[in-house]
Design a protein that fits this description.
two-stranded antiparallel sheet; Aminopeptidase; 5 helices; globular; seven-stranded mixed beta sheet; alpha/beta; UCP029730; N-FG_amidohydro; about 260 residues
Length: about 260
């Protein structure tokens, strides 16, 4: 257990004021959990991680020279992109797959997963953002995820999508720049809404007023090395342009569409 690292911080130039996040970068489980009772094939599916995101994030961090934080445990163990009180924090069933190792679960095991994996990841995010904001400027946070090409026999038409709550400072220019090339379909809060109380963007960006956006890329487009390379080349200049905007380095708290912030 002690040798399993729940996060990885990719070092970079913190003075650039940009941080990349990849909550669901990996499909790993600590050895003591085995496979949670699932077949190995389950860990090649989206239920275990965001396919293609680790490679895409590593490429972008290297190209941009900025720090990144990667989650190193499968979302099947505990989902780092959920609040601690979210009922989907530890899934019992995911897209038709029953997860035997997650049910039944004692309160003690629930707490172990929070203390050993979920909370250390979020502390790493907090520490990285603190380093990137040491100059007094707010860092620009870009969170990377991926989504499946199909959902319940529906072919998702979007190549990429921007998810957000109510802070549109980075969202509107990102949508505009993604659409400018004219060769991709860009979703706005598709295929799901970006306002989720307690998730990573809510916790680390909405509450403290840090400019941010969450970008989803369709998994079949970044499922191999060529796809990751192509999307890194597409996104790097866009992210660079966003980062030059001084308004994306200012703290400003927007009200969340999910309701009042915790006192």
């Amino acid at each position: 257990m002690q040798n399993f690292q729940p996060f990885e911080i990719i070092d970079g130039d913190y003075d650039k004021g940009m941080v990349l996040l990849a909550d669901h970068a990996m499909n790993r489980l600590p050895p003591q959990y085995g496979s949670l009772g699932l077949p190995d094939s389950a860990f090649l599916r989206h239920i275990a991680f965001d396919i293609g995101v680790e490679g895409l994030t590593r490429r972008l961090a290297a190209m941009l020279g900025v720090p990144a934080v990667l989650g190193c445990f499968s979302r099947l163990l505990i989902d780092p992109n959920r609040g601690e009180d979210d009922p989907t924090l530890v899934m019992k069933i995911s897209d038709g797959a029953i997860i035997p190792g997650n049910h039944p679960m004692t309160d003690e095991e629930w707490q172990i997963r929070l203390d050993t994996y979920h909370r250390p990841y979020h502390r790493a995010v907090e520490q990285t953002l603190a380093r990137a904001s040491a100059s007094g400027r707010a860092p620009l946070v870009l969170s990377l995820h991926s989504f499946t090409p199909f959902w319940k026999n529906f072919a998702r038409p979007w190549h990429t999508a921007v998810l957000w709550d109510s802070d549109d400072r980075a969202v509107l220019p990102l949508l505009s720049m993604l659409r400018e090339a004219g060769d991709i379909v860009v979703g706005d809060n598709e295929p799901y809404d970006g306002a989720l109380k307690g998730d990573t963007m809510y916790r680390h960006c909405m509450v403290p007023g840090i400019p941010h956006t969450l970008l989803e890329v369709r998994q079949d487009l970044i499922g191999d090395e060529a796809g990751m390379d192509a999307w890194a080349r597409r996104l790097a200049p866009i992210f660079t342009a966003l980062n030059t905007d001084p308004t994306l380095h200012e703290y400003h708290v927007f009200p969340s569409r999910t309701g009042p912030y915790p006192a």
